[in-house]
Structure formats: structure tokens, C-alpha cells
């Protein structure tokens, strides 16, 4: 099994190259081995493009070796037609005799059917190699499929004395972000934005900071902007309504005449718990992962409804003395690291 683990690990390394580009498809890695040597490898292309198995098979120079090779893949090959043909069919077509799979695909259209198709064609199939590691690696896709909601990351920066924003009187007259962390922490946040499918903020954060919610200090795509605006208070001139990035506004106003052109609106009931409603809407929009950047009330709502998977908390060196308190999160971090003057603490919701 150690040989199998070696190549599944390599598959996970390859798959990471698709982080932020494959959603709502999972990021998958595939390695093809003949007589102890890798003869082909690939990972999932950006959404709509070929899957990992296709790219790996295409990379093999001598296709005659495929009939004597072993294919390693981090997730069960698909068995249905979507944007691309079934990968299981391609594996059978090339006569690959052995397939080793990290984990079974919970997607309703796959869920063992890919394995069944391979076995019926005479392939030797091994399932469950480094299963826990594969689950962690595929956490966004698995959360979406199994819990019917996005994988949710709550993120905030707090001062040394536990505030995420100063008193309103200390802010300038024009809305702009008030930075607690250093430049390197800020750059890391932009890297995270490029990796997740959506980013969510509440009304007050928009009114106070007028954020762009785009990826600027890191190479990568912009996330879908998700904005809570119960009464449509956000002025049309604010960045989140500038139509440069796909934006979804969640509101209680069911009046299309008040909507901005080019923005997607969804009506929810703000008199009831909203985190679950937001998750339902985002699932309907096929959003598999989301980072929540504020404000404190919005973050606390998801924490209190227990609808979060990871928390990433920066603590800076500044002291406000008073202001907007940081969200309350119980438990100890699983890791901490220093980013120059800042401390980044990571929590998981087990």
C-alpha cells in the first residue's frame, strides 16, 4: 500500500494546481505508472475543460503502455456526461488494467457508478487510499455534495485587545478600509480570495469600508461577491455594485424596480435565521466555497448557527481600547503562525 500512497500523494500535489479554477468541479490529480515509473500525469482543467484523467492520459507519449499501466486518481472517475464525457469510459477505452482511487465520489450522478463501470470492464479497482487526506484535500467539493452548502471560511483581523474596528468617531469621513494587519497578511488574504469561489460581507462593512472585494495583491480570479443588503441601503456608486465582478445581493426587498442592472438579487427572510438561508441560495448557485470577511455581526451569525468549517483569525499589535468587538469563537486553534508582526490562528469546526 505504500506504493499506492506515494502516487496518490503525488496526485494531491498535482490537484492543488487547480485550486480556485475548477469549481464547481472538484480539483483532482491523476498519475499513470508503468513498471515503477510515472509515464503520465494531469490535474483538472479550469471549469468546463478536461478532467484530470483525460489530461494524464493525453500526456502519455507511448499510448501502448496504457494497457499495462496503473492509473492513480484522488477521486472516483466520473461515469456521466457533463461538460465532458465520462472519464471511466476513457479509462476502459484505453484498456488500463488497474485503477487506484483515493475516495469514492459522493456526487449523486457518480456515487460508485464509476467504480462499477471499471470493474465490469475487467479493471482491478482499489478504493480508499489515503482517504482522510483526500477528504481534507477535497473539502470544498465534499462539503457541497454532502452538506448541500458551500465550504465556509470565516476570517477577520483583530487588534491585540480584541477589536475588529475602531470607534466610528476615529474613522475618516469617507468610507475606506481600516487596516489592522500588515502588508504581508493583506497579500495572503488576496491569495485566499483567488482560491475560493465567493466572498461575503454585510451591509455595514460595505457602508463603512466601500470594499472592492477583488483579488488585487495576488495573481488569480476574483471571487463572486455576495452582499447582504436587507433594505437596499448601499448607494449605487459603491464598488460592490460596479458590475465589474459577478455580484449577488441578498435582500428582503422584493421590488425589481429598485435593483441595479447587472447585479443578481435573491430575496430571503431576515426575520428568520439567515445563515442557513444564505447557504441554501449559494447551493442553488453552485457555489462550493465562500470566505466571509465581515463584519462582526455577519461573522457571528454564521458561528452561532454553526455554519462554518474554518476560521482564520489575524491578531495585530495595535490597541484600540474600545470599538467593535471581534466575534466570539470557542475552542483552541489547530495552528498558529507569525506573519512579521501579526499572528494568524487557524480553527476548524470539527
From TrEMBL:
Set out the biological process GO terms recorded for this chain's protein.
riboflavin biosynthetic process
Involved pathway(s):
Cofactor biosynthesis; riboflavin biosynthesis; 5-amino-6-(D-ribitylamino)uracil from GTP: step 3/4; Cofactor biosynthesis; riboflavin biosynthesis; 5-amino-6-(D-ribitylamino)uracil from GTP: step 2/4
Keywords assigned by UniProt, alphabetized: Hydrolase, Metal-binding, Multifunctional enzyme, NADP, Oxidoreductase, Riboflavin biosynthesis, Zinc
Q: Which GO terms describe its molecular function?
A: 5-amino-6-(5-phosphoribosylamino)uracil reductase activity; diaminohydroxyphosphoribosylaminopyrimidine deaminase activity; zinc ion binding
Positions with a binding annotation for NADP(+): 157, 179, 205, 209
What cofactors are annotated for this protein?
Zn(2+)
Note the InterPro entries from the entry: APOBEC/CMP_deaminase_Zn-bd, CMP_dCMP_dom, Cytidine_deaminase-like, DHFR-like_dom_sf, Eubact_RibD, RibDG_C, Riboflavin_Biosynth_HTPR
**Which EC number applies?**
3.5.4.26, 1.1.1.193
SUPFAM superfamilies reported in the protein's UniProt record: Cytidine deaminase-like, Dihydrofolate reductase-like
Catalytic activity reads: 5-amino-6-(5-phospho-D-ribitylamino)uracil + NADP(+) = 5-amino-6-(5-phospho-D-ribosylamino)uracil + NADPH + H(+); 2,5-diamino-6-hydroxy-4-(5-phosphoribosylamino)-pyrimidine + H2O + H(+) = 5-amino-6-(5-phospho-D-ribosylamino)uracil + NH4(+)
Give the CMP/dCMP-type deaminase domain ranges: 2-126
Where does this protein hold substrate? 193, 213, 216, 293
Q: What domain of life? A: Bacteria
Cofactor mode of binding and number, as noted: Binds 1 zinc ion.
User: Which residues of this UniProt protein bind Zn(2+)?
Assistant: 51, 78, 87
Please list the residues that make up the active site.
53 (proton donor)
Family that this chain belongs to: In the C-terminal section; belongs to the HTP reductase family.
Described purpose of this protein according to its UniProt entry = Converts 2,5-diamino-6-(ribosylamino)-4(3h)-pyrimidinone 5'-phosphate into 5-amino-6-(ribosylamino)-2,4(1h,3h)-pyrimidinedione 5'-phosphate.
* Protein name from the UniProt record: Riboflavin biosynthesis protein RibD
Organism per entry: Flagellimonas olearia
Ranked from the top, the taxonomy reads:
Bacteria, Pseudomonadati, Bacteroidota, Flavobacteriia, Flavobacteriales
